[in-house]
Amino acid sequence: MIELDHVSYTYGGGELLSDVSLKLQPGSFHFLTGPSGAGKTTLLKLCYGALLPTSGRLSVFDQDIARLNRDQMALMRRRIGVVHQDCRFLDHMTLAENVALPLMVSGKAEIAEQTDLSDLLNWVGLGARLDALPPELSGGERQRAALARAVMLSPDVVLADEPTGNVDWEMSQRLLRLLVELNKMGKTVLIATHDLSLIRAAKSQVQARVLRISQRQIQLAGADL
Length: 225
Ligand SMILES: Nc1ncnc2c1ncn2[C@@H]1O[C@H](COP(=O)(O)OP(=O)(O)OP(=O)(O)O)[C@@H](O)[C@H]1O
Prior knowledge:
Layout: E1 2-11, E2 14-24, E3 29-33, H1 40-47, E4 55-60, E5 63-64, H2 70-78, E6 80-83, H3 95-105, H4 109-112, H5 115-123, H6 139-150, E7 157-161, H7 169-184, E8 188-192, H8 196-202, E9 209-214, E10 217-220
Parallel strand pairs: 3-8, 3-9, 6-7, 7-8
Antiparallel strand pairs: 1-2, 1-4, 4-5, 9-10
Helix pairs in contact: 3-6
């Protein structure tokens, strides 16, 4: 589904990822961990085409990402839902409008008027907050709304960047359950997180592989977490 073949990524500050090879199989569940600044967000950005590898081959849905034209890239991105670390809401738009944004952008705005949106917001427990503005939401509500927006277009892959940052344990468990539920629906899930207790908690719920970025490489983490 997503395959990195000897991928390296270099920017002005130096090489961040070096000769990384990795396969995310359809329906798999992965955590990506590693110290701050190791390159977790960068790896996620490579996976959804926001950055291109400096060298190596990265294919998504069996297509070499470097060879996609603009339209093909847009189609590819629609199949990947991203939960950004900073949530990225438009503060002047309501929660419902923010979550429906991917539909507007993809020209399916009329669906936003139908039940899909309220079903989705009920699923994340925000059915009663449709008209709230983002600044009125708590951290946990923002994170759940970001997850709802990421899956608005029924993506095949969900990439979540610190989806439980700034929330308490109970809320992080709730978010984890939602992500596990998405995986049980067949979606491929990759979660970047610092939170090793989240990874431990997931073990009883889902068969997850844990990847660790260390010294510009990705290793499969052992059972010592
Ligand atoms: N294109 C770029 N230009 C400048 N700096 C970059 C670029 N890409 C990555 N970096 C730097 O590389 C480092 C890794 O960033 P990244 O956000 O991927 O790490 P991270 O593991 O997600 O960190 P955190 O856990 O703190 O979110 C950072 O210091 C970042 O500023």
